[in-house]
Amino acid sequence: MTATLRSLLRHETILAILLVIVLAALATQSDRFFTTANLLNQGRLMTEVGLVALAMTFVIVTGGIDLSVGSILGLTAILLGVFWHNLGLPLPAAMVLAVLAGGIGGLINGLIITRFKVPPLIATLATLALYRGLAEGISQARSVRGYPEWFFVLGQGEVWGVPTQLWILGVLVVIAAVVLGLTTFGRATYATGANETGARFSGIGVDRTKMLIYTASGLVAGVAGVIFVSRVSTTRSDMGTGLELDVITAVVLGGTSIFGGRGTIIGTVLGLILMQALKNGLALSGVKGDGTIVVIGLVLILAIVASNIFSREGDG
Amino acid sequence: MQPILALDGVSKSFAGVHALKNVSFDVRPGEVHALMGENGAGKSTLIKVMAGVHAPDSGEIRVNGEVVRFASPREARAAGIATVYQELLLFPELSVAENIFLGHAPRTTMNALDWPKMRNEARRLLDDLDSHDLDVDARVGSLSVANRQRVEIAKALSQDARVLIMDEPTAALADADARRLMDVVRRLRDRGVAIVYVSHRMPEIFALATRVSVLRDGAYVGTSDIGDITEAELVSMMVGRPVDQLFPKANTEIGATVLELRNVGYRDEIENISLTLRAGEIVGIAGLIGSGRTELALTMFGITPATSGEILLDGKPIAITSPKQARDLGIAYVPEDRGLQGLIKSQTIRENLSLSLLDRISTASIINRAKESSLARELIKRFGIRARGPEQRVRQLSGGNQQKVVLAKWVATEPRVLIMDEPTRGIDVGAKAEIHALMSRLAGQGLAVLMISSELPEVLGMSDRVLVMNNGRIVAEFARAHATPDSVGAAMMQTQTLAEVA
User: B5-239 has which CATH code?
Assistant: First the structure.
């Protein structure tokens, strides 16, 4: 194994050890935690955050951020209801259109960031408000219910004993890991984040790379939106509020540098599982909601500090 | 005369690696003692030992004959030893006077800052440096590099420095500014300041220094009075072997025109540029910083696409609108700023070498890692890049080796036109000679090379043809035989008037 891969895996190794400790500790705290049913159910609950975190890993590796993902999720959820219920489109068509609308939301982010050179934090902070406002304006505080039974397979059903959406997450994890780790596009992503000018001067299409990544971020937020609606059986305009914070926490916990240029999909997946395990396990052990947030915050700091201490090598 | 600062048998190692081995060095009042050596020879470490940044593991430091131990740079400064580092440590948002007196500003009896005194003192210090035109209230961020450097020197002198250590003070300066800086150094020397002067520029050393000392691989090689040594001897002391030729320009057969520019312009930065580059030819561009040299390169490479005129490749008109397109057309650019533009310093040598040709080592977008590694190993060997291996991070390499990585990564794209912007800036003589030899060999293989350089000897030594830029235009063209320091220098310096020289 190469030196680069080793130094990149270092954070992931620490995280994996931490995860095992946490799982073991939680299993001793509550006998309802370490059961197949509970674990699969947790997988179901973390899928939306997980999907968005995959694209967010790319975004953060380029040195950017996408705060608008929660709002895009909310907007696509509303649009799904509007397309199907109000416009009378067939549900499959409405699903596709809603996801595409999410992609357009991401494309707009990309355009603002690359064409007008607005820092991603500002650009997506603005569209966070914009898309949420649109969602609320369109929905007029009405929720859409009464979806057909087959639609709930996506969010509530199972395939071969595993929640449907976990299969989708699994497939996308593999695709994202391959794209980021093994392809020219992944290399362009890392180079852009590590030194944008240097990447541009090396003939990398930096703007194209970013456009694709922000668009993909919007698209998966759209997919997550549709799954969310299917899971909770209803459409409301406040869906996905605050999702971006969970997503960013999972990605950063997974070792992706917020300054860009560093990060892996494996790390993000570990970060995601660790976060979900803590939320669920602590709740089962009787810790209240605010307590859980405190613990997640502490774990985040601990993981970052630990990996900073152990990965000094290579910074000469 | 007794040395004011003397180091005796100083050794220093970092994590088991010897940076300095038993080095002795001294400097006397009123002399300029040049310190030379290739990158990684230990110059920086030696400077930092003198400046109190590093404490030596063994050996002693004497100031005026008394043994001292500096626990911090502050103590070294208190002993009268000031250092002007290569990277200037100024605060861009503060004024010139504030920067000069930062940390030791004069106070009134009420212990408030004594602004009038501070400004007057700053004025006096700058006047001493012959910088009457520098406003003490100017924001440092608005100053040129040359002026910032004067502020840094004034800051060093504001604490009554008796020893001034200067680390490559002219590396970032254009010729005119460098000459002015050298006048400042002479003035300080004549006032009795002892100056330790680090530079890679030979002419400067011979013009300024009283004595010169050479380090190699952390060891002391020798000291000589400047009158007793020739440039070639000095170079071989640094490199440890005789260097055959300073500019190994081979005579190559010059082929057909590859790239032609006709009246190319970009906004108001460059105007009416017409030039031809032929296979096997090295064309040098001379000109002061700001004459439009780099702007021309950026236009040819598609960073700032031409806004007027025509560009022809093999006689066919083309438009170059992005670096990616330039690369695909066979135009490579080894940029001026290695760290920012040329390399991804946090990545490995392998990743840097493959970045411009990822398409060629991948199938259906999946990078072939075996191919990538063997490409990297081959390039490391072919370009003589001194590194532990392809997985070493580029930021750990010396300047010369970093430059070889940039050059290798672009040559690997098999370009037809190679534009090199300041190809040897800030790298040591050994690496410099290797880069010149490479350049010559590449031209011999039929590449059209366009070389931009601030070093006139390099332009004159390497080019088949010399173009002179001034004020965004090409003002003169010389064949190799007619390019002399006087003729080219005159064209570089002339104001406005356009000369038509054959």
Answer: 3.40.50.300
* Chain A residue with Cα closest to B321: A203
Amino acid at B278: R
Chain A residues whose C-beta sits inside 8 Å of any chain B C-beta: 2-4, 178, 182-185, 187-188, 190-191, 194-195, 197-205, 261-262, 314, 316
Residue B495 φ/ψ, nearest 5 degrees: -100, 125
What Rg do the C-alpha atoms of chain A give, in angstroms?
20
pLDDT the model gives residue B351: 96
| CATH 3.40.50.300 segments of chain B | 5-239, 257-493
Q: Give me the residue spans of the domains in chain A.
A: 13-22+36-310
Say whether pLDDT at B315 is over 80: yes
**CATH 3.40.1000 for the A13-22+36-310 domain, yes or no:** no
Domain B257-493 has CATH 3.40.50.300: yes
* Residue pLDDT, tens place only, B175-218: 778 888 888 899 889 989 999 999 878 888 899 999 999 998 88
Mean pLDDT of chain B: 88
B322 to chain A, any CB pair closer than 8 A? The answer is yes
Question: Which helix (H) or strand (E) segment is A273 a member of?
Answer: helix A265-284
pLDDT (tens digit per residue) in A149-186? 899 988 888 889 889 999 999 999 999 999 999 999 99
* Closest chain A residue to the Cα of B348, Cα to Cα: A4
Whether A202 sits inside 8 A of B340 (CB atoms) is no
> What is the model's pTM?
0.77
A246 to chain B, minimum CA–CA distance in Å? Answer: 29
The answer to whether the Cβ–Cβ distance between A195 and B355 falls below 8 Å is no
ipTM (interface predicted TM): 0.87
Give the Cα separation of B445 and A234 in Å (integer).
Answer: 70
Cα–Cα distance measured from residue B21 to residue B38, given in angstroms and rounded to the nearest whole number: 16
